[in-house]
Structures are given as structure tokens and as C-alpha cells.
Amino acid sequence: MTKFRLSRKSLCIPYAVFLLFFVIAPMLIIVFYAFTDKNNHISFMNFVNFFSDPTKLTTIVYSVVIALITTVVCLLIAFPVAYILARSKIKRKSVILLLFVTPMWINFVLRINAIRELMNWMGLLGETNYFNTVFGMVYDFLPFMILPLYTQISKIDNSLYEACADLGGNAFTSFFRVTLPLSMPGVLSGITMVFLPSMTNYVVSDMLGNSKVTIIGKFIETYFGTNWHMGSMIALILLIVVLLSSFLSGGFREENTRRTTA
Amino acid sequence: MKGKRIISALLSLTILLPALSALGGCASKKEVTLRVYNWEEYIDEGGEGSYEYDYEINEDGSAPPILDDFEEWYEETYGKSVRVEYSTFGTNEDLYNQLKLGDKYDLVCPSEYMIMKLAAEGMIQPLDTAQLDIYNANVSDYIAEIFKKTPAVAGEPLEKYAAGYMWGVTGLVYNPEQVNEETLNESGWKIMLDPAYKNKVTTKDNVRDSYFVGLGIHYREELLALKKQNENGELSDGEYTDRVTELMNRTDEESVKKVTEILKTMKSNIFGFETDTGKSDMVKGTISMNFAWSGDAVYAMDQAEEEEVFLNFHIPEECANLFFDGWVMPKDEKRDKDTELAALAFINFMSRPDNAVRNSYYIGYTSVIAGEEMLDYARDLYSAEDEENAVPYDVSYFFRRGDEDKSAYIINAPAEQLSRQLYAQFPPADTVKRCAVMGYYGEAEEAINELWTQVKGEQLSAWAIVVICAAVVAIVLFIVFTKFGHRIEFRMKPKKGYRLVKQEKLK
Question: What ipTM score was computed for the predicted complex, to two decimals?
């Protein structure tokens, strides 16, 4: 009997199996449904239907815009926070960081309900549906932006700032020449973690926008009740939009990350 | 070594245990497993929410779930044991998808239109109605008539496939302090478009309820004319209901188009579409009117009363949607006779008036079961305490058997109940005649789902789409250029220590 040896390759098997069953197989099923009709015949009607319907196109454009605004606002809030936390000499930084992250431990629906109550009290509920939706998304995804930024900025070596100062750089220069370029990987992973889910998080738009704001994730959900084929097609199109945006923002460029973190 | 042996012993045990227990199951007498698939929170689950009734309670004083009682009753009555495998679904569409995926159940409880869809697609089998003796003896004549009249598929009545469970009507829950009742009576469903109630009304976030409201507004004049004819005596009650039902089941292109426009206008006027926030928003006063199913309306009114807010229920003058859920049996070749009998016994058990009261009390909807206990229960809930304020409320259309005297079916209710829980649970006879069953859309289903997409989706004028698309293209181009431009530039740069000499200078 040959002895079974645990090589490094065989350690990968569970992950390969996992990927096969829970990532690749479902995607293939989605592709299958997207390009078939009710009788399971190959059909491109869903594709044609999607791109010839102004409402569906407008909705996906709206989703992208809402997600973009959410990401930008998250970035604008999170960068200073992460920078201050990472660079300043205040004590108990971890406690403050923890405070920013704790909301993540509370059930998401509960938090959105609380925000809903708050907005109701302020008289915003039902009046400013799009603002409410973006607000809820920002509130929900902010920790996902702060954490990678904080980790990245706190990794920057202090001697780089000293060198910058020695060479005559002022605070402005040191920010744009040292902090910003070196925190780019954090920014990118933050963007990925905020932009993608905020295109599909329809619970926020349902609760805070009273279902009058529709993002593309809601369409997918509705169609999966009545017409899986159209639902799969929209899911597939969303996947492509997401892949494109990651590609453009450089999420796939390994060398990029390596160069800046080195 | 020792550790390993223990582990292997444990492992073999865990593998063997299920097998052993399966053997044990076989050894005892044969047990029938009944797979029931019902709505969430749609059956008496025992505990604190149960109605205090003279049935056996647990040793600790709490009420047992009705399913336990069924298992016990079945064994006593038939001498066989049954185990109910109970699971729940959230929407009719979920149920349909589960069945389509091949999940097997012995009894499911979809709504009327889904029963029709399942029947049309041949997914359910006819019930052996002769076995449903308790159900047949207790179901309200009014409901039985509807089951006889409404076709499941062309030529086959619903009663062939389904036994009723709960029923209700749609209407508007409103706060009388914030809503002018005169306006409400005049406008009916049209109040959803009334700018005076902008951001004060919600409706359901689903296509069927919204389509019904849209149709109600679109055919308003016709519906009101029919009502007048009925009042004048030109139209018999039965004919009136049929004519309303015909109008409210229209799915032709023209109607769908008109309803789309109506719903789009409605969307800009209402507070929003909701699935379950409507009740609490009513109690808090965020909104003053809410489209509601009668069972939910009863729940909302009960909840509000605890907060000293008194809400009313209104069934619009034009028409309302009569809906019901019923037990049907999905096709399954492997099902044996015993299981089928147990399924029918389950329907019978749930149709016993005392059990119907328990379920009805627990979930707030009105059972399709009449019977003495049910009437006692209604009296118990709604009879007036002081006689001076009492108004006779006739519920004979629901409880009466044949040509019995109506006077036995009158509840002396407090005057305010005429527009509250009692009115929602047992709408009066002259109201239910304008309540129509909205069936399965059939071939129009896709068009009406598409209507919903158009209503719910975002609307933009063409130029705005162009501007946004241009902006996106500009951003994409910008990113591409900065990236690839950078690379090109990088290649052109001279090596360190060299200067780039421009071509012109060399000349």
C-alpha cells in the first residue's frame, strides 16, 4: 500500500472543490438560465429585452450612479478618519477604531430600521428617497472603507515622511507624494468593497426609499420570483458591469499593488 | 494510539446512529409522514398566542401547537400514527418555485390565483372530496359557492382541487382623525392619486395588489354604474358580482397600458410601496392610510388600540379583491394511499370549527369555516358590553345554512365596530357582493409582470440618459488613457543620464 502523503498540492483540493461547487457551478447555471427561455431552448430574447427597455437601462444607470455617489462619499469620510487614526499620536486608537467598526456586529436590518425611525423623526422619510438611500448605504458600508484604509496608512514608514520633510516637502507635498500613492491599495480594496454591494443592497432602498427607489438588485429579486431567465440575465449583466469597473479601477493589476506596497 | 481508537469508535458511532434509529423506526408500527407546506405564521403554534379554549393544555399550562393535537387525534381516530413534517414559505412565487424545483409535499396552501396556475400547469391533483366530510359539513355556504363558481381551469371548478382555509378582502386601513371620511367614500381607490394625501398613503409592494387598485381606478365609472344598477334592482346580486369580476380580471393590452400609466402617477403621489412596514407606520402616524388585507388590517387595528390609536377599515365603493388560501395536493406518483388519507384527514381536522377558531385567533385572518363555535367566537369578540351603544350586525350570509332564519345570526356589536375589526373580518353582505376574485392572469402574466417592472423602475428622459452615458464613457476613456498613456510615455522616456533630443534639432 502506498503511503498517502500530504503534499502541498493536496491541501488545495478542498478549496478547489469549494470553488467548483459554490462559485463556478452557480455561475454556469446563471449563464444557462440567462440564455434560455421558459422551455429551456436557447434564446437571446432576455438579452434583447434588457437592452431595448429604457426602464431597465435607466435603472441600471441609476444603480451605478447611486453606488458611485456612495463610494465617493464613503471615501471622503473614511480617508480623513483613517489618516487621523493612523498618523496621530492619540492614545487608545484601537478603541476609536473599534467604535467605528462595532455597528458591523449588530444585525444590518435592525440598524436600517433604526435609521428609518431617525429619518421619520427628522421628517425626511418619504420626502427625500434618493438621499435617504445613499445615506443608508454610506452608513452601512463606511466600516468597509475605513478598515482597509487604516491598515494601509498605518503601514507607511515614518522615515518616508522624514525624508520628504528633509527634501523640503511641506505638509501638502507629503500628503500627495507619500500618503496618497502609498494608500492606493487600501483605497482600491475599499472601493471594491463598497461599490459592488451598494449596487445590489435593495434592503436599504426598500426601507429608506419606501421601495420608490429601485436599484438593479431589486429587479433581480423580483424577477427570480416570476421569471428566472430574465433574473439570471440581469444578474449576468450586473456581473459584467462589476467586472468592468474592477478592471478599470485596477483591482486586478497585481503588479500595481506589489509596486506600491513594497 | 489510544486516542486514535477512540476517535475511530466515535466516528463509526456517528455513522451508525442514524442507521440504527432508522431501523428502530421500522421496527415500531408503520408511521405515515405527512409533508405540509404552509405560509409563515399561518397556523396555531401554541404558546401564548393561543386562544383560551376548552382543549387540553400542557402540564406547564401552555397551549400545545395544533399540529401535536392533530397527530394525537389521528392516532385515536384511525389507529395509525402520523408525523407532520411542517415547513413554511413566504410568497406564492416561492412556493411555485419550490414545487418546480422538485420538492415533494402532500399538502400546500397557496392563494386562489396560484391554485389556478398550478391546476393549469397540471401540478396538482383533484381532491377526493367525498372524504372531506368534516370540511364539507362546516365550510360556509358563501365560500362553498365561490369555490363552485370559480373555475380552477376552464370547465373545472376550484372545489375539485382545493379545500378552503382562510379568506379575506382588500381595503384601506385609515386613521379617521387624519382622513376625511367623506372624501374617502367618494374617492374609493382613487384616493391614492389625491394630492391632498400626497405622501400619506402606502400600497403593497407586489404586482397583483397594485394591478387590482389600478384596474379599480381605471374602471371606476363602469363599476359605480354597475353598483347603481344593482341598487336600483336592475341587476341581481349574483350578476353584479359576476360583472365586477369580469371587469377586474381584464388583462387586455389596452387595460394593461392604462393601468401602467395610473400606477406611475400613483407612485409619485403615494408615500411608498411596503411589504410589512405599513402596519407600524400607521400606528406611528407616519402615514394616514394603508392598503391592507383584512387579516393584516385586524392585526394593525388591534396593535394600534394598544397605543390608544383607533384605526378604521374601509372597503371602497367600486370593488375590492376577495382572496382566499386553500389546501391542494401536488402530484406525486410515490405517494401511497395512507398518506393521501392522512392529508385529507388533516384538512378535516383543521376544518373542525373549534380548530378553525384556534387558527383564526392565532393568525388574525377569517377562517372559511362557519359553525356554531365560530359564531360564538365572533360574538365573544365583538358583542357590545353596554346595550345602548349596540347595533345589530348581520353575518347570516356567512353562517346561515340554506334558508334558515337570519335572526339567529345577528351580532349586537358596538357601533364603532361597524368600521373596525368586525367589518374587516366579516364584511356585510351588501359589501361582499362587490368583492371580486382576481384569477391567474394566464397568458397575460408576463405582460403584467413587465408592467410592474415599468412602474417600479427608474424613469429618465432620453437626453438625461445620453448625458449620463456620455459621462460614463468619458470616465472610462479618462481611466484608460491615464493607464495606457502612462505606459506609452514610460517606454518613450530616455534612460537615466540621457536626454531626449528632439528630431527637429538634429536637422
Answer: 0.86
